[in-house]
Amino acid sequence: MQELLDRVLRMAHSRMTTSPTAWEACLTELATATLDTFLQYPSIAVTATSLTTSGPGELESMELMLACFSEAGLQGRSLAEQYAIFASYVLAGAAGLARDTTDPANNGTYEWFAGPLQADPSHHPLALSSRDDILALEEREIFFAGINQIIAAAKEKAQNQGPFSQPNPVAPLEHENTMGFTGRPPGTLPN
What we know:
Keywords: Transcription, Transcription regulation. Residues 21-107 form the Tetracycline repressor TetR C-terminal domain. InterPro entries: Repressor_TetR_C, Tet_transcr_reg_TetR-rel_C_sf. By secondary structure, the protein is an all-alpha fold. The chain has a domain at 2-112 and 139-160: Orthogonal Bundle (Tetracycline Repressor, domain 2), CATH 1.10.357. It has helices at 2-14, 23-40, 42-45, 56-72, 76-101, 125-129, 131-136, 139-160. α5 runs antiparallel to α8 (139-160). The longest helix has 26 residues, at 76-101.
């Protein structure tokens, strides 16, 4: 399956015509090419979030995304993070949309929220007041809205030139092991 997925990734990459120097357009084109190719091969695409191919298709896509974000001005950890965020989003979103094409209950529609949205106004007033807007959303539209937000965040990050996220490790408390488990039953206090 890894070889098939890598072949699909190569096919998506082969559709590219935009240079990384036009990094925003190039990333949007890559997302479009990935989505469109995944929709052609949904049974392979659904494995994209759980397999690493380490093949030429995956590496070409990785290099292209890194080149785009580098062109935007990111480097080091910020570059790696932005690549990971974008790649994860594209793979998960495109795989999810591809999966939906194989669902017989889909009926050829791609609403973001499937089914009725019934909300009690006393408990969920915002859900109820946003109901029509939520039900009008379409999955592909939301996919590209996310792509645009990731690209905008990368642009802002590059302009501000600070690390995208600061590692902020929290030391475990004395009574906790490094995994956060205390070894005590829930709700009990340390001695």
